[in-house]
Amino acid sequence: MNDNIVAFIGAGNMARCVIASMVQAGYPAQNIIASNRTEPKLQALANDYGIQTTLDNIEAVTKADVIVLAVKPQMMGDVCQTLIERAPEIQEKLFVTVAAGLPVSRYESWLGDIRMVRSMPNTPSLVGLGVTGLFPSRCSNYEKSFVDAMFKGTGMTVWLEQEHEIDHVIAVTGSSPAYFFYFMQSMQQVAEELGFEPEQAKRMVAQTAMGAAKMALDSDSSFAELRAQVTSKGGTTHEAVTSFADQGLEAMVANAMQAAITRAREMAKTL
Ligand SMILES: NC(=O)C1=CN([C@@H]2O[C@H](COP(=O)(O)OP(=O)(O)OC[C@H]3O[C@@H](n4cnc5c(N)ncnc54)[C@H](OP(=O)(O)O)[C@@H]3O)[C@@H](O)[C@H]2O)C=CC1
Ligand SMILES: O=C(O)[C@@H]1CCC=N1
């Protein structure tokens, strides 16, 4: 399996996360090639992970067995159409896309009846604690196993039966690192106003978030039960949590997640 050459078209944040986790999980760096329209990110990837790089998308896809499309959704049509015009033989290769919003049918309109896995990873993949949703189209079991192994190093993989579930994965795990960062950013800001140094405040908040997440992962208790363990009757936590509840935290979270899903659906129609 590790003999397959994997080409990443677009070497931005998400490509870096997946490449890092593949290499850390033991995938041979010489079998990974990344292409990007500008040089600096390629140099950084070559330095950090020892992978091959090129500024030429055609060179990358021509060498590849598996083509990972990792440009922004808005760029995807142009990139795919150029690839197929200049290297029509790639139609026989396995495609993986990481882009939000775009359905398999859109890729088929650009590239023909390709074999594809639609994926939705997230940035914690960079540290092996990501979650990746995967939806296969026309793939063999071998190809699904290969893609599963490719993403296993990112953390956890979740195979989906229906394509629309990718939009749900976006709301739950694809976009959600940003929700947690936003929450932590707000906490850091208050911690600084209370007099903690910025670095110290950041570490205090992040360490608490990591500790809470680890407790949840290591225990059978629900989030509500873990919350109850912190919340002494008549104590400080009760006041803070009541303040969140009074301000409508649950509705706020539900609305935000629905907004992510709605945007993914809009992108599917308009891009
Ligand atoms: N960031 C995230 O958390 C997640 C992102 N995604 C998806 O991943 C995809 C990429 O997002 P992200 O990594 O954040 O974006 P980035 O902007 O970080 O990466 C996109 C990369 O594509 C490069 N690029 C643009 N046009 C071309 C081209 N014609 N040929 C080659 N390379 C090109 C850009 O080059 P340059 O350096 O010149 O700008 C850039 O490095 C998106 O489709 C997004 O939906 C999915 C899950 C999570
Ligand atoms: O914001 C976005 O559209 C991408 C997809 C999920 C995370 N980032």
TrEMBL record:
Keyword Oxidoreductase appears in the UniProt entry: yes
Pfam families linked to this entry: F420_oxidored, P5CR_dimer
E.C. code: 1.5.1.2
InterPro entries, per database record: 6-PGluconate_DH-like_C_sf, NAD(P)-bd_dom_sf, P5C_Rdtase_cat_N, P5CR_dimer, Pyrroline-COOH_reductase
Localization in the cell: Cytoplasm
Domain Pyrroline-5-carboxylate reductase dimerisation per the UniProt entry, residue ranges: 163-267
Record-level Gene Ontology MF annotations: pyrroline-5-carboxylate reductase activity
Catalytic activity, as annotated: L-proline + NADP(+) = (S)-1-pyrroline-5-carboxylate + NADPH + 2 H(+); L-proline + NAD(+) = (S)-1-pyrroline-5-carboxylate + NADH + 2 H(+)
Major enzyme class: oxidoreductase
Functional pathway: Amino-acid biosynthesis; L-proline biosynthesis; L-proline from L-glutamate 5-semialdehyde: step 1/1
Major subcellular site: cytoplasm
Pyrroline-5-carboxylate reductase catalytic N-terminal domain ranges (all copies): 6-101
Classification via SUPFAM superfamilies: 6-phosphogluconate dehydrogenase C-terminal domain-like (SSF48179), NAD(P)-binding Rossmann-fold domains (SSF51735)
Keywords, ordered alphabetically: Amino-acid biosynthesis, Cytoplasm, NADP, Oxidoreductase, Proline biosynthesis
Family indicated by similarity: Belongs to the pyrroline-5-carboxylate reductase family.
Role of this protein: Catalyzes the reduction of 1-pyrroline-5-carboxylate (PCA) to L-proline.
Name recorded for this polypeptide: Pyrroline-5-carboxylate reductase
Gene symbol of the encoding locus: proC
